[in-house]
Amino acid sequence: MNPQEISIYRNPAKGSCKSGLSYHCCVRTSLPHQPQRSQLSQSQLNPNDPQYRSLSPFRYPGGKAFLSAFLADKIPEAAGDRHYAEPFCGGAGAALVLLKAGYVQHLHLNDADLRIYSAWRAMLTETARFVDRILSAPVSVETWHWASDLIRGASKGTYDFDLGFATFFLNRTSRSGIVVGAGPIGGYNQTGRWKIDARYNGAGLAERIKWLGSVSGHISLTNEDGLTFLHNSLTRTPVDHTLFFVDPPYVHAGGRLYLNAMNEAKHIALSDILQDSKLKHWILTYDDHPLIRSIYSRQDIASLDVTYSLQNKRKEKEVLIQPTDLG
Ligand SMILES: C[S@@+](CC[C@H](N)C(=O)[O-])C[C@H]1O[C@@H](n2cnc3c(N)ncnc32)[C@H](O)[C@@H]1O
């Protein structure tokens, strides 16, 4: 995603400008590049820099890697390790940039979708096997059908390596990175201009996965509902040293881009947790919906244009919300 296409601007309408499965990686390795935060400033972090551009193994519609410089500036100061958490992590693009650039030393990634969780867990804990599979699996419509059959209906259950690889494969080879409900790039007969391997550079993807494996000791991974994750974070995460970046599914979901395990009651419950609990350092992005403007009316709301499709440059109006005392 190109950050030049994004604008963050203040909302003139506002007066003030403003499941239960859990897995934690336990091997702790050194980050290859870990500058002190004092050596860095927001302007030095350019998510479009080639070293940060392609960290996430996923293509995610509306992915938020482009916000990483903004988020870097919001990370709370800490004498020791700085932590960063995403309760709805998806492709976790911003999280990986912040880890690689040394702004944070520990990531807490969570996604309720077993398929996404399995892909992350397979990459982080069975790295060599995952890399072998990337390099050996034929990038073909046959493999696409195998993956599609495997993931159908598999949003709940337990971790499975093949489920994780199938999810990754579909994300890389389906139109717009949509895992369920989109056909292969180039069509079933491969008559389109782009072919199924257009977004599947095996060697490059293998390098991304190897890097993930090398920093897996700095990443905790869970497969919980986002609200449960936030509740649990109050006791298992050093919340005073943790920035929570919350990017839930839209209130008004236009299409089935990814799992949406939220309803209106849950959107309201999420706002209660964020606004009334001990979580002080949070940033939230949402679709620009009246419900959201209403339940977060006490907070600082800015507008955000987010590119959703790289092909037709489709943009969505989102809002970026932060506690009034964080801005
Ligand atoms: C908007 S996407 C996050 C995109 C991410 N910020 C990125 O940059 O790639 C929302 C994610 O939330 C997950 N999800 C949906 N409902 C959830 C829930 N109730 N709890 C936790 N995760 C959920 C989906 O599987 C999806 O990956």
Notes on the structure:
The protein has 327 residues and is of the alpha/beta class. It has one domain: Rossmann fold. Helices cover 32% and strands 15% of the residues. The protein has helices at residues 50-53, 68-72, 93-100, 114-125, 127-136, 141-151, 161-173, 202-214, 226-236, 264-276, 290-295, and strands at residues 8-10, 21-24, 83-86, 106-110, 219-223, 242-246, 282-287, 300-307, 315-322. The protein has a nine-stranded mixed sheet, with helices on one face. The protein is globular. Residues 1-43 have low confidence and may be disordered. S-adenosylmethionine binds next to loops. S-adenosylmethionine is lined by residues 60, 62-64, 87-88, 90-93, 111-113, 116, 225-226, 247, 249, 258-262.
Write the SSE topology.
Layout: E1 8-10, E2 21-24, H1 50-53, H2 68-72, E3 83-86, H3 93-100, E4 106-110, H4 114-125, H5 127-136, H6 141-151, H7 161-173, H8 202-214, E5 219-223, H9 226-236, E6 242-246, H10 264-276, E7 282-287, H11 290-295, E8 300-307, E9 315-322
Parallel strand pairs: 3-4, 3-6, 4-5, 6-7
Antiparallel strand pairs: 1-8, 2-5, 7-9, 8-9
Helix pairs in contact: 4-5, 4-7, 5-8, 6-7, 9-10
The structure holds S-adenosylmethionine.
S-adenosylmethionine binds at residues 60, 62-64, 87-88, 90-93, 111-113, 116, 225-226, 247, 249, 258-262.
Order of helices and strands: EEHHEHEHHHHHEHEHEHEE
List segments where confidence is low: pLDDT < 50 over at least 5 consecutive residues. Answer: 1-43
Shape: globular
Attached small molecules: S-adenosylmethionine
Number of domains: 1
Biggest sheet strand order reads: 1-8-9-7-6-3-4-5-2
Helix content: 25-40%
**What is the overall pLDDT average?**
84
Name of the top-level CATH class: Alpha Beta
**Under the CATH scheme, which architecture would be assigned?**
3-Layer(aba) Sandwich
CATH superfamily: Vaccinia Virus protein VP39
Strand content: 5-15%
